[in-house]
Amino acid sequence: MPKTILKVVDVVKRFGGIIAVNHMSMEVYENEILGLIGPNGAGKTTLFNCITGVYRPEEGEIYFMEEKITGLPPHVIIQKGIARTWQKVRPFKKLTVLDTVSVGALLRTPDVDKAREKAMNILEFVGIEKEKWNRLGTEITLIEHKLIDLARALATEPKLLLLDEVAAGLRPHEMDRLAKVLLKIRDEKKITMIVVEHVMRFVMGLSDRIVVMHQGRKIAEGLPQQVASNPKVIEAYLGTKPL
Amino acid sequence: MAKPNKILGIPRRNFYGIIVFALILSTIPVLLRFNTYYVYLATDIILIASLVAAWNIIGGYAGQLDLAASAYMALGAVVTGNLLALYGITPWIGIPIGVLIALSVAVAVGYPTFRFGIKEVWYALLTSALVVILSRIYWLIYGSAETYLPTYQWSWFYLRFSRYEPFYYMLVVMLAIVLWTNYRIRHSKLGYYLNAIREDELAAEALGIDVRKYKLYALMIYATLASIIGGIYVCITGVVGYRNFDPWLGITTAVMGIVGGLGSVEGAVMSAMILRTLEDYLRGTIGAQYPGSHLLVYGIILILVGVLKPEGLASLIDYVKKKIPWLRS
Q: Least CA distance to B192: which residue of chain A?
């Protein structure tokens, strides 16, 4: 029986009259890649924000490695080992690539020189060439941005990594490059990942399990093939052919 | 473990750069042939440069639009000045006490400000209001009368002199200290975190940075430096009053820091020196015929910089650095 690393129990998040997350529950097992899919507005990013402390849910609890983390602020949650990347890349525009990743590394390694070294190792791991390390945040391509966001998050030594629409805007060969890095993270670094995605090809091929959200709730869960042929899922994605 | 590439916690290049810069500045009074007015002007320029370089910590590194540099400077000035004038306490004790007062105000104001996430425009409004509020409080306590510091011909104990040269050199040392502080921060965890906060607070928080805590650290360091500068300033002018709290200076400090290029302490110092010299030149020429016109020209120059080169003088410095790779830090 695989160990549960994250448990979301009956979480509710409202914005005024809108219920973004409506009694959502799910479990994430150690060392898996969990795909979180659903149509736009299903509440996936909101759920991410609840897990990472950006939002405080109105109801429900979130447990990370048996510890209650509901409502803790973001900088505490990352200390506990949950890192995230962003839907819209958030680079540090006026910092170099190496400085950016070093900021992440400083969380666990307060010595600046050691943090920079660690950052260099991680940049190598995700596949950013040395020549690019001194480029500013404004001078790099989209796929590089995403890999750097990823490297920055990895530098904080997380046990759980939340990836928010990381494949958006990428070309097929870039998606393959990214997928390879994510698999490397799971296999070599033993980090659990939740991947929120719209790009079916990407998430279906990558995930061990899938959870489907619609209108703030979980409507399906299981292996990629199971979920893809689930009529409720197809209905929610009106117009998508089963894969 | 020896780190051969750093001296006193800052890279070699920066350390030697500060020494060389200080030595060059030391020759200025000689070049000015110890002319009283010009040495006074030079002293004032170094003072402003130190203040703007200190501002760089909160404005350039942390990215907060702080308009209260003159508040912390004035706190240092009035505490040091009153302690000397009213109780005969030497500034060597008065200035540290001034620092304590300035720090208390900085924390008292900064803690709730950052706790409630006040930033950008609202932070600017809050800080500019702070100067005025402190000015009013001082006026309520001490009235509109001005207190004069006791005069001594040449006293290192009371920091009062009949010439400006000792102050000039004290301020050159102060400028070196402020520069050292800037470089020290830049190459430390605090510096990296402040840069991240400036660039993107939300992303910074997601990386484990306690944004409020680090902003407060930056504010405290900057307030300390500004209040020391104020303590020295009051010994130069010899006058203590509510007018020490000058809102205009708070604004111009921030403007000079921005024109210099946010985050570049070299740009900040350059910008302060150029603009302060320009201000005095304009005041003496056009300003004499048409009072206040120097402010107009000053303003136009600032707008031009903002429109044509928003990166400030720092971009010019970078350009020069690219041409001379040996200078790269």
A: A103
CB pair distance less than 8 Å for B199 and A94 = yes
Instruction: Give the phi and the psi of residue B103 in degrees, each rounded to 5.
Output: -65, -40
The interface pTM score, or ipTM, of the predicted complex is 0.85
Minimum Cα–Cα distance from B199: chain A residue: A92
Question: Does A115 touch chain B if contact means CB atoms closer than 8 Å?
Answer: yes
Distance from CA of A142 to the nearest CA of B (A): 17
Closest partner residue to A107 (CB to CB) among B188, B200, B208 is B208
**A29-78 confidence digits (pLDDT tens):** 999 999 999 888 888 989 999 999 989 999 999 999 999 999 898 888 99
Kindly state the tokens that stand for B109. 């104001």
pTM for this prediction: 0.89
Give me the number of domains chain B comprises: 1
Q: Is the dihedral of CA A220, A226, A228, A230 positive or negative?
A: negative
C-alpha span between A59 and B231 (Å, rounded): 54
| Chain B interface includes A46 (CB < 8 A) | no
Say which amino acid occupies B90. Answer: T
Q: Is residue A156 part of a domain?
A: no
Domains identified in chain A, total number? 1
- Provide the shortest C-alpha distance from residue B124 to chain A (in Å): 22
**Residue A237: which domain range?**
1-71+162-168+194-243
Burial grade of A15 (CB within 10 A; 0-12, 13-18, 19 or more): exposed
Residue A163, phi then psi, degrees to nearest 5: -115, 115
Tell me, yes or no, whether A105 lies in a domain.
no
Which residue in B has a C-alpha nearest to residue A74's C-alpha? B206
DSSP 8-state code for residue B89: -
